[in-house]
Every structure is written in structure tokens, then in C-alpha cells.
Amino acid sequence: MTEKKLRTTHKKRSKMTKIILWTVLILAIVLGGTVFYYYNSFQNAMSKMNPTGDSIAKEIPDILPHIDPFSVLLLGIDERENDTGRTDTMIVVTVNPDLGTMKMLSIPRDSRVEIVGNGTTEKINHAYARGGIPMSIATVEEALDIPIDFYVGVNMEGFLSIIDVLGNIEVNNDMELIRNEYKFPKGEISLNGDEALIFSRIRYEDPRGDFGRQLRQKQLLEALFAKAKNPTILLKLDDIFEVLGDNVSMNFSQKQILNLQKLYGKLDKNIEQLQFEKGDGIRKKDGLWYYIFDDEELQEISTKLNAHLEASPSIEP
């Protein structure tokens, strides 16, 4: 495969993880107003999602998320048997409640950066393998020169079961698609967790390529929003909390989760997607392919995110 094709493949990596990561926050926000019905289940889930221990936890910040600007690092973690795992996706989200706006930046997993605390320069997704969530946070803070207040880490394979708990996702498929044994006819289709994952990953079988894939992912996200808003979700809270507790870790407190509910309707249509477009790929002597940030673009994004957080970068432009 040529270097150009390698760069294209890496830049068009599947964004299904975004949908699953956002589902965590969607469910937490929507369910926040009803947890008093299932207080014990909610308490148990929160105790699992707020782990303790220096190797896992990040201190809960003294922030009122419905009032104060804040940032979140969303981590989609690929954990395999006998492996410490890596972050398949790293997304930085900044929220400004006063402006009612949200900015979301996806960090290329192959970005070549300093792994803070490990004394190495390598792919940013290796930070989790080297030092877990704390090292991932420190590395992102250093690379982007922004503060990270909260994190949400999701074990991807286990979390997929949330779709089956909620019930099949229904979408309007605009063209027939086939991938291996999976067939998705044109028109209204109903998808379980496994089918939704395959449906969202299809690229080569779609003549529109990544554009078509992003369209399908948007459809899935909208379907998940609809499921989370359905009153019948109350009947499934115990199962939902169980899935969240087993597959999610975060440093939002119970009170902060409940406060997020106040932002739900205000922010869901005011999301600005940011992305790195000017960087380039390079194959180093170690044989690995890396994404190299464009310094000027990196500075522009850092400045924009800090301004959104009403914070000051440590490195002045």
C-alpha cells in the first residue's frame, strides 16, 4: 500500500466510537431526572464508574457543568485478552453553558506526540497502554495545551450491549448494502448491536465512501437519541445501569451528572466539529506510520478551545 493510501485510510478511520461514547453521556443526562426511581441501581453504577486508585482515577473537579465551561476527554478503549488495551478513539469536547455551545475535536490515534510521564515519543493512543487514563489525559493536555477537566472511558466491546438493552435501532437506509454475511436492504431497517456496528463501518461497499458512512453514523446517533427520550426506557433502567457500570469509567460525580440534564436540550443542536486537516503522514525508521500535526493548525485549534473554555493557553501564540 502506498504512503498516500495509508494516509487516506488512517484519516478515514471509522467514527462509530463517537456514537457509542456520546450514548454514554446522552443516557446519563436523560436518565438523570429519573434516577430516584432506581436509586440503588444508580448508586451501584456510579460507584463502578467512579473508580478509585492512582492508576485509574482523576480527581473530580469542583465544577458546576451547567454553569461553568468544562472539557471532557472521551476515550473508546479497545481491551483484548492478555493485553492492557489502547484507545481506539480520543475525542476532546469543550462545553460553554453560557454560550450554549459545544466543540468536539477528534484526535488522530496515530498522532506522534510526547507520552507524558513515560519519556517517549510515539503514537498518542499508546498513552493508555503505558499509563492508563491518567497518562492519556496528561498527554492530551500537553499536546493540545488545554486543561482536561473530566474523562469518560468506554470499553467498546462490552458497551455494544447497550443497543440490545434499549431495543433494536430503526433507521431509513437509502441504498442496499452488503458486507460479508450482513445484508442491509434499502428502506426502513431494524438493527441490533452487532448489526449497527457493521452498518456504521461500511465504507468500501458504499460508492460514496466515507461520506456515506458518516451519514449512516448520524442516523444511528439520532436513533439512539430517540430511544433515550422514550418513556419506556424507565422499564430498562436496571439493565442500562448495569451495562454502564460494567463498561464505563468517569470522574463526573452524581450531582454533576444530574446537573448535565439541564444542558441536554440546549446543546444537542449546537455542536461544532473540529478536525485536523493540514497534518501529514510519515513512516519512521521504526516502520510505523505516524500522523504529524501542522504546527500552525495545532496552535489555532488550541487557541479556539481555550477561548471556548475561557482559559489561557500555557504557550502564548
What does this structure look like?
The protein has 317 residues and is an alpha+beta fold. It has one domain (16-279): Aminopeptidase. It has helices at 3-11, 16-32, 39-49, 127-144, 156-159, 161-166, 193-201, 210-229, 237-247, 254-260, 264-267, 295-308, and strands at residues 70-78, 86-96, 101-107, 112-115, 120-123, 150-155, 169-173, 177-179, 182-184, 187-191, 248-250, 271-274, 280-283, 289-292. The strands form five sheets. The protein has a six-stranded mixed sheet with strand order 11-6-1-2-3-12, sandwiched between helices. A hairpin with a 7-residue loop joins strand 1 (70-78) and strand 2. Helix 2 packs across helix 10 (254-260), helix 3 packs parallel to helix 9 (237-247) and helix 7 (193-201) runs antiparallel to helix 8 (210-229). The longest helix has 20 residues, at 210-229. The chain is globular and about 50 Å long. Mean pLDDT is 80; it is low at 1-15.
Radius of gyration: 19 Å
Task: Give the topology string: H per helix, E per strand.
Answer: HHHEEEEEHEHHEEEEHHHEHHEEEH
Major β-sheet profile: 6 strands, mixed
* Tally of domains: 1
Give the N-terminus to C-terminus distance in angstroms.
38 Å
Structural class: alpha+beta
The CATH architecture term is: 3-Layer(aba) Sandwich
Instruction: Please name the CATH topology.
Output: Aminopeptidase
Summed up, the helix count is 12
Strand order of the largest sheet: 11-6-1-2-3-12
CATH class: Alpha Beta
Shape: globular
Can you count the beta strands?
Answer: 14
